[in-house]
Design goal:
The protein has five helices and three strands; from the N terminus they run αααββαβα. It is mostly helical.
Length: 246
């Protein structure tokens, strides 16, 4: 493999990793935004339940105050009944007392209804408060982790971009242009290895003479089918392998 192919192969690896890092760096703020929105939604639901529970309690307090008022009216009416001089007056006082008692029963029935509604609200509020507290801790932890991960990714990204810049400088502009064109066409896969006489990307067999020219490694060669830049690793002989690993 000639030096240019090695550089192009390394460039492709760098571009793949750079793309992954950029995607991750871009996705982390979106992830934080998503969990913060979920937290805000749960917080609004809790506030709505708290408001409903507060309104329920206010209604019950108002009804309890109404009962006290009616009780006071009944007490006064009973005192006035003792001073009634005629049956008509007595019956009039009794009619008002009956009316007040009916109002009290209405209030008591409504209070019981509100108490039935308040029980699940109270349970929901307590559960939501506990869950929200835990969720806030998780969100804060994830935000810290995301910031640390972003910093690490950005550091690695800067290093890879610096290495890429060096390789790009060493490659000629025409080769770089071809590499970028092919990479764009095949979504990042600009380089392919030849295995068993075939392009490993498109699986098309190479012509014998073309394959022989590629094996010499004198120049950059492109797959006649898909157009990718080709490279070839000659097989290591058994004897060479023994010599390298005695």
């Amino acid at each position: 493999m000639n030096a240019e192919i090695e550089k192009i192969g390394r460039l492709q690896s760098l571009d793949a990793r750079i793309g992954e890092l950029r995607t991750e760096v871009a996705s982390l703020p979106k992830h934080i935004e998503k969990i913060e929105k979920a937290l805000d939604s749960h917080n609004r639901k809790l506030e709505a339940d708290r408001a409903a529970l507060g309104a329920n309690q206010k209604d019950r307090k108002r009804l309890e105050d109404d009962i006290k008022v009616q009780d006071q009216k009944i007490s006064k009416l009973k005192d006035q009944m003792l001073q009634a001089k005629t049956n008509e007056q007595y019956r009039a006082f009794q009619h008002e007392i009956d009316y007040c008692q009916q109002e009290i029963r209405k209030c008591e029935d409504k209070i019981l209804e509100l108490m039935g509604e308040s029980e699940p609200l109270d349970v929901n509020v307590k559960k939501a408060e506990t869950a929200l507290k835990q969720e806030k801790q998780v969100v804060e932890t994830e935000k810290v982790t995301a910031r640390e991960r972003t910093a690490e990714d950005q550091k690695q990204l800067d290093e890879l971009l610096a290495e890429r810049k060096g390789i790009v400088t060493e490659l000629g502009p025409q080769i770089l242009k071809e590499y970028e064109r092919i990479r764009k066409k095949w979504r990042g896969a600009a380089v392919a290895e030849v295995v068993s006489g075939r392009c490993s990307a498109c699986q098309i067999s190479l012509r014998p003479q073309f394959f022989q020219d590629l094996r010499r490694g004198d120049e950059l060669m492109f797959c006649e089918s898909c157009g990718r830049i080709l490279f070839y690793h000659p097989p290591v002989s058994f004897e060479h392998d023994l010599a390298a690993h005695p």
